[in-house]
Amino acid sequence: MRKVVLVTGASSGVGRALCQRLLEADDGLHLCLACRNRARAEAARDALLAARPRAQVSTVQVDVSDLRSVLRAARELRRRFQRLDYVYLNAGIMPSPHLNIKALFSSLFSRRVVHVLSTAEGLLTQEDRITADGLQEVFVTNVFGHFVLVQELESLLCHGDGPSRLIWTSSRSARRANFSLEDVQHSSGREPYSSSKYALDLLSVALNRNFNQRGLFSSVACPGTMLTNLTYGILPSFLWTLMMPLIWLVRFFANAFTLTPSNGAEALVWLFHQKPESLNPLTKYLSATTGFGSNYVTTQKMDLSEDTAEKLYQSLLDLAQRVRVTILDAD
Question: What is the rounded distance in angstroms from the CA atom of residue 286 to the CA atom of residue 299?
């Protein structure tokens, strides 16, 4: 029986590179591309099948920032499949990131330069916005839309015929200081991306506590710093060109500079091959690249409290219930 793998945000960036690498590892998969844009999803599907004609590749349209879209996609997936073996929760946004030039130049002449350039800590702020569902866009796209999707697919994930996997695309920029249980959507802060990634780290831990006995296991991975549409939006293209020699130099000291989506997918692909029972639920798995371009996986103990993780999980359960009631009333 073919393993079924669902990947959100699969039409570009690390999501598309992940799909390519998974099929290189096992073209006997059924790969389902969950994407917001139907045309881009079909183009990605055609390219994957051209390279791996033996594979089965399908698409489903879902915008994880739109909860009605999430519920429709989940109904479609339940109709098509009897089980899901892997779900890569990869779709995400960093809206209109602004670079703090003063902080950048200050860091270049400090002992923290490698850490700051690897994580962008203190360098970026973003302007968030409210979605049609009345939720913060970064929170719902990076965390809550995926959480609702997992809830809706529970019957496909907890099927009793072997373990299923949730693998979240997190970030080294996830910071405890940028997250608060009193403001899980980060509506009052200026670091919504970091807050959302810390929230999904917490959520992964809580999902393991609540679902491991039912055969569902969750892991988080960071693809590192890649040059994608997301990062190119931070600076004008000519500045990236000017900075490339420095980036290549720093990569000899900071393995987080994976630079390409294919390199960034390293930890995500590595997790595909691991037995979930052997993985530490409190560990984040990081894609890394040497100065000479060799990929490998390293680990990081997550800076979080399991009690906070459970409280977040319960808070999201309550929010999901309220949102469902609102949607049903509106429909």
Answer: 6
User: What digits encode the pLDDT tens for the residues 14-41?
Assistant: 999 999 999 999 999 999 999 999 999 9
Residue 289 has which token pair?
A: 């690249």
Residue 208: C-alpha distances to residues 136, 165, 201, 267, 269 (Å): 26, 10, 11, 19, 20
CA distance 240 to 293: 19
Q: Give the HSE-up count for residue 291: Cα atoms under 13 Å, Cβ half-sphere.
A: 10
Q: What was the pLDDT predicted at 123?
A: 54
4-330 belongs to which homologous superfamily?
NAD(P)-binding Rossmann-like Domain (3.40.50.720)
What's the Cα-to-Cα distance from 232 to each of 66, 169, 237, 256, rounded to whole Å?
25, 19, 7, 17
Query: How would you class 170 by CB atoms within 10 Å of its CB: exposed for 0-12, middle for 13-18, buried for 19 or more?
Result: buried
296 is catalytic: no
**Mean per-residue pLDDT of the chain:** 89
In which band, very low, low, confident or very high, does the pLDDT at 110 lie, cut at 50, 70 and 90? low
Q: Give me the mean pLDDT over the 138-149 stretch.
A: 97
From 86, 193, 285, 313, active-site residue: 193
Distance, CA of 62 to CA of 73 (rounded, Å): 6
pLDDT at 101: 53
Average pLDDT over residues 173-181: 94
Non-local (6+) Cβ contacts of 94 within 8 A are 124, 126, 138, 193, 230, 233
Q: Report domain extents, the chain.
A: 4-330
Task: Read off the amino acid at residue 189.
Answer: G
DSSP, res 303:
-
Helical H segments across 158-191, by residue range: none
Q: Which residue has the higher pLDDT, 89 or 232?
A: 89
What DSSP letter does each residue of 105-119 carry, written as one string?
A: HHHHTSTTHHHHHHH
Q: Which of 151, 155, 172, 127 is nearest to 302 (CA)?
A: 172
How far is the C-alpha of 64 from the C-alpha of 68, rounded, in Å?
9
Which helix (H) or strand (E) segment holds residue 260: the answer is: none
Which carries the bigger pLDDT value, residue 86 or residue 227?
Answer: 86
